[in-house]
């Protein structure tokens, strides 16, 4: 069928287009639920021909060689790898063919210094081979390619994998997360005064926040066990704990009628709780930079948790709205507003929403 598809057989193309339509429609629904969008799509159907051209270039320059069955290979044994098929004997493409074309097309369009491939660690070998081939082909930009390899995710019921029978449907998992968020939120009575529409939005915000945060707080390279129930704990190292902290701060600010425009002065003395919170808030730009340089959203995720944890200590130990002096009250309100701003911005960078009230 692949031969017919690459030859442009109309019946095969029509069937392929129909099936692709179903797939992309389902993808869009899932990504919308997750709050994910893409600036650009690259389709293998549009890059495999460019990949074949690159392979021909490699044959002409001696980077690739043909076997008796006419298949095209590259010998990487000197690099501690093995021989790799890059084009079948019948002339049809393989994954590496398409990836070569996609890499070239991306560079032709963006001339980027760095390109990051976010793909599971089961593809470590594939990307090692891909990057090495591009370097051997003399692509100067190949040194800027990076595979952000992440560990597999286990559920109590099995492994989340896309190519085995233990597949976990993403839509089912997200629905379960929203339902669990609803149950926990209602148990704790955190929806008083909410309309039904507002409740539904809150459950979705908490459910998706719990899912994303639990996955992102772990170093990308590590394998993790994802427990849906644990992830929605409002008291643990979780997204909902951080979300609730943000809502708590907003409640304090609203009760005080706080305005950012209100001038602030430092009190004669500050407590250890205030000092600790100020110091961690000041680290925000450094943490963002480190997370970016090391390709580790986990650093940012854990930093935000530290901010939420320290704020809650400060909240429980120091009076804010009932502070004895107006200067102290105003200072603590500004400190609270800064904590809320850092939490909101940090979670937004992770693709997680934070509610204004809860």
TrEMBL record:
Enzyme class: ligase
Entry keyword set: Aminoacyl-tRNA synthetase, ATP-binding, Ligase, Nucleotide-binding, Protein biosynthesis
Gene Ontology CC: cytoplasm
Reactions that this protein is recorded to catalyse: tRNA(Arg) + L-arginine + ATP = L-arginyl-tRNA(Arg) + AMP + diphosphate
Organism ancestry: Bacteria, Pseudomonadati, Bacteroidota, Sphingobacteriia, Sphingobacteriales
Listed name of the protein: Arginine--tRNA ligase
Family, per entry: Belongs to the class-I aminoacyl-tRNA synthetase family.
Entry GO MF terms: arginine-tRNA ligase activity; ATP binding
Enzyme Commission code(s) on record: 6.1.1.19
GO terms of biological process kind: arginyl-tRNA aminoacylation
Organism: Sphingobacterium spiritivorum
Domain called DALR anticodon binding: residue spans: 242-358
Record InterPro entries: Arg-tRNA-ligase, ArgRS_core, DALR_anticod-bd, Rossmann-like_a/b/a_fold, tRNAsynth_Ia_anticodon-bd
Pfam families: DALR_1, tRNA-synt_1d
């Amino acid at each position: 069928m692949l031969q017919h598809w690459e030859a442009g057989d109309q019946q095969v193309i029509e069937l392929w287009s129909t099936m692709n339509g179903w797939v992309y429609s389902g993808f869009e629904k899932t990504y919308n639920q997750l709050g994910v969008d893409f600036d650009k799509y690259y389709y293998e159907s549009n890059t495999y021909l460019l990949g074949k051209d690159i392979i021909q270039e490699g044959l002409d320059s001696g980077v690739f060689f043909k076997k008796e069955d006419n298949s095209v290979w590259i010998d990487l044994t000197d690099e501690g790898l093995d021989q790799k098929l890059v084009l079948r004997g019948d002339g049809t493409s393989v994954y590496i063919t398409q990836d070569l074309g996609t890499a070239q097309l991306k560079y032709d369009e963006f001339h980027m210094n760095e390109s990051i491939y976010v793909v599971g660690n089961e593809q470590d070998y594939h990307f090692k081979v891909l990057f090495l081939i591009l370097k051997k082909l003399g692509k100067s930009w190949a040194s800027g390619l990076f595979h952000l390899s992440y560990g597999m995710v286990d559920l109590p019921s099995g492994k989340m994998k896309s190519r085995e029978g233990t597949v976990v449907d993403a839509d089912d998992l997200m629905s379960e997360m929203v339902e669990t968020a609803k149950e926990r939120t209602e148990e704790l009575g955190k929806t008083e005064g909410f309309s039904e529409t507002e409740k539904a939005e809150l459950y979705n915000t908490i459910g998706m926040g719990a899912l994303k945060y639990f996955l992102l707080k772990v170093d990308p390279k590590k394998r993790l066990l994802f427990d849906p129930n644990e992830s929605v704990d409002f008291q643990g190292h979780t997204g909902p704990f951080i979300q609730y902290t943000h809502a708590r701060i907003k409640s304090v600010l609203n009760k005080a009628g706080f305005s950012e425009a209100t001038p602030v002065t430092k009190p004669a003395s500050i407590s250890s709780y205030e000092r600790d919170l100020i110091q961690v808030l000041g680290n925000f730009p450094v943490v963002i930079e480190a997370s970016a340089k090391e390709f580790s959203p986990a650093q940012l995720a854990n930093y935000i948790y530290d901010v939420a944890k320290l704020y809650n200590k400060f909240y429980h130990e120091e009076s804010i709205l009932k502070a004895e002096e107006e200067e102290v009250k105003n200072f603590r309100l500004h400190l609270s507003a800064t904590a809320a701003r850092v939490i909101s911005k940090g979670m937004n960078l992770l693709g997680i929403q934070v509610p204004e009230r809860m």
